[in-house]
Amino acid sequence: MTTAAAPTTPSPGAAPHVAPKPRVVVLAGGLSHERDVSLRSGRRVAEALRGAGIEVTVHDVDSDLIPALTQARPDLVWPLLHGATGEDGSVRDVLEMLDLPYLGTDPRASRVAWSKPVAKTVVARAGLRTPDFVTLPQSLFRELGAGRVLEAIVQRLGLPLVVKPSRGGSALGVTLVRDAAELPRAMVDAFAYGDTALVERAVEGREMAVSVVQSPDGLRALPAVEVVTDGPYDYDARYNPGRTEYFAPARLDAATARAAADMALQAHRALGLRHLSRTDLVLTDDGVAHFLEVNVAPGMTETSLFPQAATAAGHDLGTLYRELVQLALRDAAATGV
Fold first, then answer.
1. Mean predicted confidence (pLDDT) in 139-166
2. What's domain 23-104's architecture?
3. Most buried residue, 20, 258, 265, 272, by CB count within 10 Å?
């Protein structure tokens, strides 16, 4: 007869069992025009995660990355890369090839969101308002003649206009055009950051950003952040304190705040995004929200909008980021990735 063993009890003074900390690699840097912003985002997120008990390493995107990831085999990778490769899905494709779980949107949806014209088309089909626009490659200007093309743009969309690269972030290459004479220079500035420009009708109103986070209970929108600048909300205004005033939460009545939140949630769902996103929009004086673009890797610097929204919602950033890491790990375990 076998006698059941008595349950063991820890000896006095023995340390209780502690689950191992998840090992996370934050990807920051890269070679895009937004490298510095990415590095600042990576440092801020790494500091917050370490404070929340997560083991974190920050790694640049360079020739050492694949060997380092292959050797370390982290539990999770968090791509905090802004601009090309970081948001166009390509680095996420590499992580999937390496069979490494990662936080954020998958490569296919990232590619859709990364292209502003495609993203605007998708959300418009989902019933969201977005400013009317045209997308023009640089080669078309050479073939048809820049003057005639620009004249047709003004006739079609009117003034004022916003000219921006069809891909990219941090307002690089973006110009508000109020006079047709300003349009040629605006096109040159946009083409400096890509071979295709998006020209859209400018919508006058208040600029807002609404971040979305996923939780075990579903998607939720964080409070809108209102952006007020002493001029264009350009790269300098975004990342150098002093030129921009932020209101977090935005100065909105309850109904308008719900409309802004609903737009961000609908855009997140329509584009098939995952874990987190930030939607940029304009609210006109009648309270109507107009979709501008969406970010699958929102900035996390000290002046970035996602952390401001999270703080306005009462979140401790380290705790929120740890919850996102845990959610991504659960999703990876459920899908076998």
1. 93
2. 3-Layer(aba) Sandwich (3.40)
3. 265
| Whether 34 is catalytic | yes
Nearest to 225 by CA among 178, 173, 264: 264
Give CATH 3.30.1490.20 domain extents, the chain. 133-201
Name the strand (E) or helix (H) holding 163. Answer: strand 161-165
Model confidence, pTM: 0.90
Pick the catalytic residue: 32, 34, 41, 166?
34
Burial zone of 326 (CB within 10 Å; 0-12 exposed, 13-18 middle, 19+ buried): middle
Percent of the chain with pLDDT over 70: 90
- Assess whether 302 carries a catalytic annotation: no
- Position 232 pLDDT exceeds 70: no
- Mean pLDDT score across all residues of the chain: 90
DSSP label at residue 193: T
pLDDT band at 1 (very low <50, low <70, confident <90, very high): very low
143 vs 100, which has greater pLDDT?
100
pLDDT surpasses 60 at 2: no
Catalytic residue among 110, 115, 170, 211: 170
Spatial separation of the C-alpha atoms in residues 73 and 64, rounded to whole Å:
14
The residue-averaged pLDDT of 66-88 equals 92
Q: Where in the chain is the domain with CATH 3.40.50.20?
A: 23-104
Q: Are 244 and 228 in contact (CB under 8 A)?
A: yes
Residue stretches of the annotated binding site for Mg(2+): 280, 293, 295
DSSP 59-118: E-SSTTHHHHHHHH--SEEEE---STTTSSSHHHHHHHHTT--BSS--HHHHHHHHSHHH
C-alpha span between 300 and 79 (Å, rounded): 12
Please give the class, per CATH, of domain 133-201. Answer: alpha beta
166 catalytic, yes or no? no
